C-alpha cells in the first residue's frame, strides 16, 4: 500500500497567509495576459479570498512578462519551454494552501475559481474541470473534440480514474498533495500525469462542469505531438498493459506452437515444422522478456514510486527471490541436460551433421528463458530494497 504523507486537512490559513495561488503559464500571450491577471485579482477580491496571482513566463519574446507585472502579478521566469516545466516552476513558488491552474488564453472563465475552492474546502484534494458538454463554437478543434474523449476513456480504462476530460486546463488542488503527486513531466503530459498519480495514491478527485471559450492569440497545442506524449506516459505508467499482458500472450502463442510441433511433427514436412519451431521459440523468448520488463516496471512503481497494487504486493509476499532463482536454474539445468543429450548423440555419430534440430532448439530455448528468469528475479528484488529499508527504519 502507498504510504500517504497527508495526515490531516489544512484549514484556511490564519493571519496574512495566502489561501489561494492562481498559477498561469504564459508563452507569448501579450494579447490576453493582462486581462487574465486582472480577472484573477478581481475574482479573488470579490470572493474575499486571500490570494496571489503567479504568471510563469516560459520564455516569451513579446513582452508578456512585463505586461503581467504591470497588471499586478508575481512573475516567475522559467526559460525551459514546456507546459509541465512552466507549471512545476509555478508550483514551487506558490505560497497558497490551494493552487489553481488556469491558462492564459481566456478560454476559461476566471469566475469559476470560487467554485473550485469550495470543493477543496469541502474535502476534495484535486478538482478538475470538464469542458466537453459546454464547448462554445470555435473553441476546440474537431480533432481534439474526437481525440480528447477517446484518450480520456483509455486513461480511465487503464487507471480507473473518474475523469471525463483529462486535459482540461482549469483545475485546483491542495498544495500539500504535491509531495504525493511527485510530478515529473515537462510537457503537456503533465495534465494526465497529475490525474494518474492522484488516482493511484487514493486522493479525493472531483469534477465540475465548465464552459470552454474561443481562445485569444495563437494556440501552442500540437495535437499529434502532445497526444503521443500523453499516450506514451500512460503506457509507461501502466507496465502491465505495455509489457506484462502482451508478453504473456506472445509467450503463450510460442509455447502452443512448440507443443504442436513436438506433438504432430510427423504430420508435416521437415521444413514446415522446423521453421514453426524456430518461430515458437522466438515468441517464447520475447514473451518472457516482456513479462520480465512488466514485473520490473510494477516493482519500480510499487517500491520506488509508491503506487498501490494489492495484487502485486500479495504475490510479492508469496514468491520470494529464491523462488525465481530456483525456477531459472531449473530451466537452465533442463536446457543443459537436453543439450548434453544432443551433443552426446552428435559425438557418437562422428561429429557429422546435427540431426536433432528440434531438440537443439528446445534446449536453447530453455537455457535462454532460464537466464531471463534468473536475472529478472534479481532485478525485481533489487527494486524492492528501498521498500524493505523504509520498513526496517
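Sequence proposed for the structure above (393 residues):
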Amino acid at each position: 500500500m502507498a504510504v500517504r504523507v497527508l495526515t490531516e486537512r489544512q484549514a484556511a490559513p490564519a493571519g496574512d497567509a495566502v489561501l489561494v495561488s492562481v498559477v498561469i503559464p504564459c508563452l507569448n500571450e501579450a494579447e490576453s495576459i493582462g486581462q487574465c491577471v486582472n480577472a484573477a485579482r478581481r475574482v479573488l477580491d470579490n470572493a474575499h479570498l486571500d490570494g496571489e496571482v503567479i504568471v510563469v513566463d516560459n520564455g516569451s519574446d513579446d513582452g508578456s512578462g512585463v505586461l503581467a507585472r504591470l497588471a499586478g502579478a508575481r512573475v516567475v521566469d522559467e526559460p525551459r519551454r514546456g507546459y509541465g516545466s512552466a507549471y512545476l516552476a509555478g508550483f514551487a513558488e506558490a505560497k497558497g494552501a490551494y493552487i489553481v491552474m488556469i491558462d492564459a488564453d481566456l478560454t476559461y472563465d476566471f469566475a469559476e475559481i470560487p467554485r473550485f475552492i469550495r470543493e477543496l474546502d469541502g474535502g476534495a484534494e484535486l478538482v478538475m474541470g470538464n469542458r466537453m458538454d459546454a464547448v462554445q463554437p470555435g473553441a476546440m478543434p474537431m480533432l481534439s473534440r474526437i481525440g480528447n474523449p477517446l484518450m480520456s476513456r483509455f486513461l480511465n480504462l487503464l487507471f480507473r480514474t473518474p475523469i471525463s476530460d483529462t486535459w482540461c486546463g482549469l483545475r485546483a488542488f491542495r498544495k500539500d498533495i504535491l509531495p504525493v503527486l511527485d510530478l515529473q513531466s515537462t510537457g503537456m503530459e503533465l495534465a494526465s500525469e497529475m490525474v494518474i498519480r492522484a488516482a493511484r495514491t487514493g486522493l479525493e478527485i472531483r469534477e465540475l462542469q465548465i464552459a470552454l471559450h474561443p481562445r485569444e492569440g495563437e494556440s501552442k497545442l500540437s495535437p499529434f505531438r502532445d497526444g503521443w506524449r500523453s499516450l506514451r506516459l500512460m503506457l509507461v505508467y501502466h507496465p502491465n498493459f505495455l509489457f506484462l499482458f502482451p508478453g504473456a500472450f506472445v509467450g503463450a502463442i510460442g509455447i502452443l506452437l512448440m507443443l504442436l510441433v513436438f506433438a504432430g511433427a510427423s504430420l508435416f514436412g521437415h521444413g514446415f515444422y522446423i521453421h514453426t519451431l524456430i518461430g515458437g521459440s522466438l515468441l517464447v523468448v520475447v514473451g518472457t522478456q516482456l513479462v520480465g520488463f512488466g514485473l520490473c516496471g510494477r516493482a519500480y512503481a510499487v517500491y520506488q514510486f509508491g503506487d498501490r497494487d494489492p495484487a502485486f504486493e500479495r504475490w510479492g509476499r508469496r514468491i520470494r527471490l529464491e523462488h525465481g532463482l530456483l525456477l531459472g536454474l531449473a530451466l537452465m539445468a533442463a536446457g543443459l541436460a537436453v543439450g548434453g543429450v544432443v551433443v552426446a548423440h552428435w559425438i557418437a555419430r562422428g561429429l557429422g551433421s546435427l540431426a536433432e534440430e528440434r531438440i537443439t532448439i528446445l534446449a536453447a530455448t530453455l537455457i535462454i528463458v532460464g537466464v531471463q528468469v534468473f536475472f529478472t528475479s534479481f532485478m525485481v528484488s533489487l527494486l524492492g530494497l528501498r521498500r524493505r529499508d523504509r520498513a526496517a527504519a
